[in-house]
Amino acid sequence: MAETKRKVAQVDPVWSHICEEARAAVRDEPLLGGLIHSSLLHHPSLERALAYRFSLKLASGEMSEQILREIADEAYAADPEIGQSARADIVAVYDRDPACHRFLQPVLFFKGFQAVQCYRIGHWLWQTGRRDLAYFVQMRVSEVFGVDIHPGAIVGKGIMIDHAHSIVIGETAVVGDNVSMLHSVTLGGTGKEDGDRHPKIGNGVLIGAGAKILGNIRVGDCSRIAAGSVVLHEVPKCTTVAGVPARVVGEAGCEQPALTMDQIIDGGV
């Protein structure tokens, strides 16, 4: 048994670490034993655990847990990248969110992480032509988590959405890898135009709370968008923009602002 556990840990260190934390959490707080066993320890893999959480959270009188569970299991089986992206997201939240001290926290408690994982299943449905069902997932994610990500949007891996309330990401938006954003961020359009109308966010970008990025514009890799900014024009890579409307106020201040989460501009100015 010990050798089996060691091999599992080598193959999937994230899931192995979550299970170790889960067993410790049950010992520390027995009242959470039922939640932790049903959500984590009962399952053989992270994908199965996430499928269970997806079905539990999004079920309603309109769609049963059983049907949603079958949809999620099908998605994870058909596209292994969904599960790998979830692992990158867990590590991203653990590394960047000072409130996250264990890998199990995003899976059980953090609505930003959970909303993104539900979006990933909705996006798979969208790509496979099951668009009405994808819209249903989008609707339920918005109702349950307060996060509205269109299933047609493209979102990379290693995503950290802190607090997550009132996040809006439009249909033709693209979000690169290792992006961090805080609550009330909007990646939106500017009117009634159709077609490609939403922002393209590069890799490693940090987007502050309440920032609005509008239109089919590019935000360059490793840039910072200050909290409360309204961005209407292209943002060069490795720069910081701030204001309404936003303008360049300096360099990004570090190579990977999304990883450091440093939002201070010129010593607080």
Automatic annotation (TrEMBL):
Leading EC class: transferase
InterPro entries named among the record's database cross-references: Hexapep, Hexapep_transf_CS, LbH_SAT, Ser_AcTrfase_N, Ser_AcTrfase_N_sf, Ser_O-AcTrfase, Serine_acetyltransferase, Trimer_LpxA-like_sf
Protein EC: 2.3.1.30
Pathway per the UniProt entry: Amino-acid biosynthesis; L-cysteine biosynthesis; L-cysteine from L-serine: step 1/2
Coiled coil: none
Record keywords: Acyltransferase, Amino-acid biosynthesis, Repeat, Transferase
GO molecular function, one term: serine O-acetyltransferase activity
All copies of domain Serine acetyltransferase N-terminal, residue ranges: 14-118
Catalytic activity: L-serine + acetyl-CoA = O-acetyl-L-serine + CoA
Family: Belongs to the transferase hexapeptide repeat family.
Protein name: Serine acetyltransferase
UniProt lineage: Bacteria, Pseudomonadati, Pseudomonadota, Alphaproteobacteria, Rhodobacterales
